[in-house]
Fold this sequence. Notes:
The protein is α+β, with helices and mostly antiparallel strands.
Amino acid sequence: MKLRIATVIALSLAIVLPGTPARAAAAPNLSLANVKNHLSQLQSIATANGGNRAHGRPGYLASANYVRGQLDAAGFTTTLQSFTYNGATGYNVIADWPGGDPNDILMVGAHLDSVAAGPGINDNGSGSAAILETALEVSRQSLQPAKHLRFAWWGAEELGLRGSQFYVNNLPAADRARIKGYLNFDMVGSPNPGYFVYDGDNSDGTGSGPGPAGSAQLEKVIQDYFTSIGVPTRGTDFDGRSDYGPFIAVGIPAGGTFTGAEGIKSSAQATLWGGTAGQAFDVCYHRSCDTMSNINDTALDRNADAIAYAVWTVATAVPPVVVWQDTFETATGWTVNPSGTDTATTGQWERGDPEATTSSGAKQLGTTVSGSNDLVTGRLAGASAGDYDLDGGVTSIQSPPITLPSTGPLNLSLSWYLAHGSNASSADYFRVRVVGTTTTTVLNQTGAAANRNGAWATATASLNAFAGQTVRILIDAADASGASLVEAGVDDVKITR
Length: 497
């Protein structure tokens, strides 16, 4: 994992993964001994080549050749992709498993290089070894995934994500569009570990915001595994420190795990996970002592199995069938103020191409999740941010009738945001309800007396209780606390089975 924190902007162009994978094959329990054998090989390579496996050094190419040799023998189609950085040749190892939908690719990646100071066994031999053993298990089981599986080991990550950036930048646009998800594993065996999962849905509300649509589903798959073994997880931000960065920058959903680097484990985290409070998650981060003795076997074993679970769950799932969807590029019959009770004087819901507004940060987003249009509370910007924002009370909009099949599972997903100034309150809100023979609130975000910038997030909800019914989706937003700045938006509403 590289040290410098870079700013990563997640584009709004999003490729959505299935909300609830169906009929996924049972994931294997990977052999910890096998994973550690790969680590031992990487340690031996470093020892024989000046103590490191850094970009441009002989230990890196030897590491790449070791990984590639294992994959070639297992039946993968491999490529050693070269690039140049700082006057030295670097390499990415790309491995494709035969079969699966070539227009629906799941990539799994880890950086293979170390820093020059040491052998890099946790950072990032651990992630490299874990995804290598996952790939080899794919071969042993002759897996036939629905998605096409592609594994990658990146070069020169420690110098600024150079290998993964080269790969993404040199993919034709059509090939990028075929990659529907990217899973990244960087430092998964830290000696004083935490159990962090990339915060795809921005539920933590910190840092860089959510990943591209589909990232929330990847996050949930990984969380589900740790829940199944009784290990609590916490979110970690898409802060630009690892190889997911180039992928989310072009709108590809991402996810993954992380056990911590130079950050200090808090008392609360030590209570949650064990280990030593007041000490770094990895005391040997970017140091010569990042050797085989710098690995926590329990963390490595759990994360390797989480990787296998994510790959099997996502790659073998049969994609759900779209029952109904609306991207708002054309009018489909949504009704504003369906009950005739709205009180908002400005900023009523409308479909259109939104204009961006700012006030202490982004408020109305001028960029949609897909296409040119979305549902927005007053699409115009005006001379100031408050000219067309939501004022005076409630505005509502209701979908046309949607007939649901009688069998499921049925799931609703949508992209949304609520933005407000520090003059807002908990009386302000954004709300989504499903109206059938009963009415259920599936999303309710209240305001607060604090600045909240607009950022697209993804919400999902089960509609199983409405199977066989004709329903409508009812969306409300309110500025109910006086003259406060409130904006909201909705895009890409979808119901799948």
